[in-house]
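Researcher: Let's try something more involved. This one mixes different molecule types, so please make sure each is placed in the same coordinate frame as the others.
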Amino acid sequence: MSDAPVPTGPFSVPTRLDHVGIACHDLGASIEFYRRTYGFEVEHEEVNEEQGVREAMLRVNGTDDGGATYLQLLEPTREDSPVAKFLARNGEGVHHLAFGTDDVAASAAGIADRGVRVLDAEPRTGTAGSKIVFLHPKDCGGVLTELVQSSH
Ligand code: CMX
Ligand code: CO
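Model: All components are placed in one shared frame. Result:
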C-alpha cells in the first residue's frame, strides 16, 4: 500500500461477495464433500485453460442486488498454474476471495489509484463468460483478491 492520500473521486465499489475460491487436488471428491456435508449443488462446471483450472461453482445463496454467492472449487490443469503452485506450497484450502462489481475495469482503476497492484492490465475471462481481474495478495493483507463482473 502506498502512503499517498486516498483518492476521493468517483469509484465503482464492489457490492457483494461473489465467491470464495478453494484449491483442491480432486474436483470430484471436493464436490462430493460439499454436497454430502452441506447439500450444496454444482450450478456450473468448466475448464478455464488461461487460468489453468478445472472448476465448479456451488451456489450458496442469492443476494439483494440479484447476484449470488458461490464456492468456487479449483483443481489445477497444469503444474505451472497459480493453483498448482499454491497446492504445492500450502496444500488444499482457501485460495482467494472474489468481490462482485457492475464494472470491473472501473473498480480495478479505482483500486489501483489506492495503491494496490492490479495483476491484469485488461480484464480476463472468468467463469461463465464473466470478466475478472486479480489484486496482488501482498497489497491486500495476504489475501489474493479477485474482482468479478458477471456476464448477465
Ligand atoms: N493467497 C495469498 N498469498 C499468496 C497466494 C494466495 N492464493 N498465492 C501466492 N501467494 C503469496 C505466496 O505465499 C508468496 O509469499 P512469500 O513471498 O511471502 O513467500 C508470494 O505470494 C509469491 O508466491 P509464488 O508462489 O511465488 O507465486 P507467484 O508470485 O508466481 O504468483 C500470484 C502469485 C498471486 C501473482 C499468482 O498466483 C496469480 O497471478 N494469481 C491470479 C490468478 C489465479 O490465481 N488464477 C486461479 C483462479 C482462477 C479463478 O478464480 O477463476
Ligand atoms: Co475466482
